[in-house]
Specification:
alpha/beta, 4-stranded mixed beta sheet, 4 strands, 29% helix
C-alpha cells in the first residue's frame, strides 16, 4: 500500500507524458518515507467523458488509498507532496486534486 489511482481527462495526453506523470506520483509517495517502496502501486486511468460545473477544464485527480494507521498530519503532508509534484508537471489550465482514503484492512483482499 498505497494504491495511487490517477484519474485524468484524456485531453491532457496532448500536453503531458502520462508515463512520466505516473512515475512522478510514485516517486513523490516513495519520498514521504511512509511506505515500503515495494508496496507502492501507481496507475493512471483516462476519463473520456466528464462534466464539471459547465466547463470542459481538464483535470487530474489522485485517490491515494492506504491502510488506516497514519496520522492526519502524515496524510496531509503526503497529499500535499503529491499535489506539488503534479503541479510542477501540469499546465496551469489543468485542475489538480488529491485525496487520501483509508482502507479498512479487514475489508481488503488480495491474491
Amino acid at each position: 500500500m498505497p494504491h495511487l489511482v490517477i484519474s485524468y481527462a484524456r485531453p491532457i495526453e496532448d500536453s503531458v507524458d502520462i508515463a512520466q506523470m505516473v512515475q512522478l506520483v510514485w516517486d513523490a509517495a516513495e519520498k514521504t518515507g511512509l511506505f515500503n517502496p515495494a508496496a507502492i502501486k501507481a496507475r493512471a486511468l483516462p476519463v473520456e467523458h466528464f462534466v464539471a460545473a459547465d466547463t470542459d477544464q481538464p483535470f487530474v485527480h489522485v485517490d491515494a488509498k492506504l491502510f488506516a494507521g497514519r496520522t492526519d498530519q502524515q496524510k496531509q503532508a503526503m497529499i500535499q507532496d503529491l499535489f506539488n509534484a503534479l503541479k510542477g508537471l501540469m499546465p496551469d489550465t489543468v485542475s489538480i486534486s488529491v485525496e487520501a482514503i483509508d482502507i479498512d484492512k479487514q475489508n481488503y483482499i488480495k491474491s
